[in-house]
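S1.2 Input.
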Amino acid sequence: MAAHLQRIATAVPPNDVHATFVDFALGMLQDERARTLFLRMAERAAIGHRHSVLSVNGGVPSAEEFYRLGSFPSTGDRMRLFEATAPGLMRAALDKLALSDTELNSVGHVIVTSCTGMVAPGLDFIVVDHLGLPHSTERTSIGFMGCYAAINGLKLARHLTRSEPGKRTLLVNLELCTLHFQQTQSLAEVLSFLVFADGCAASLIGSDETGLALESFEAIELPGTRELITWTVRDSGFDMFLSGQVPLEIGKALALLRSRFAGTEIWAIHPGGRSVLDAIQEALALRPEALAASRETLCRFGNMSSATIMFVLKRLMQTARKGQQGTAMSFGPGLTAETMRFRAV
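S1.3 Output.
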């Protein structure tokens, strides 16, 4: 029994904070050389907009009040804001999904992915309550897997569909990355102010032949790269390290594996940053237009961790032709590439 990604809805908070956060990060750096490098990278980032649950120039909650030099928020402060703001963003995506009564009645499983907030009872309960699903609905939370969690969520949804063809699965990917910036003089860490953003995707997976057929999955771990992406919980929030070596290592690995993706006509690549997309385009010898959906998503929304690949897939579902073969790919701690082969139906 084939599983199909039938529909995707997305939502972002109303606050476009890209310019504000770039200015703030620049002001945080004290070393003049680091400031110059940061400005150069900001100009080349190919990001025009990023959204946050934090407002700018006033409002509640306010980015100016949340991030103050010398007094960055604690882990508790960040989690309280996650608890207060994540449900509203998730409800917005679920409402856009516009499930019919028939679809609601067939939802047997809810999967939620997030690496930017933790609370119990969690977002899975809020999904059930918001949609009026039976309390017997099976719930699964996939936490702390980073940017590739959505691919793992789709993998699990495929297993569930194949085991219970009459049931649909609702997948929610929600990330509030802008709650986890750190005060630091490390240029590598400050660059997170340049890339990460907030967003949510809600998707419906089932056996009806519509959308994208989920054909196969494969995890590809890159040897000797465990330390290049780390995501740890500390006293002052979730602390990310993203090495500048990541694009190089991804490019080297994929160049050796190019034949594994033979037959791919459409590409859904997680836009971890412009340099990541450039490395993949070169490694796989892709035409510039092959990554148009990924680059458009990066420009309009930035990197929203696990939600981002679903934004890319949504864009591709609008343009894919019946029968086209596709590959989706996301990267995260490990360093691991989670891949999915799919077909437009």
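S1.4 Remarks. The CA atoms of residues 281 and 287 lie 7 Å apart.
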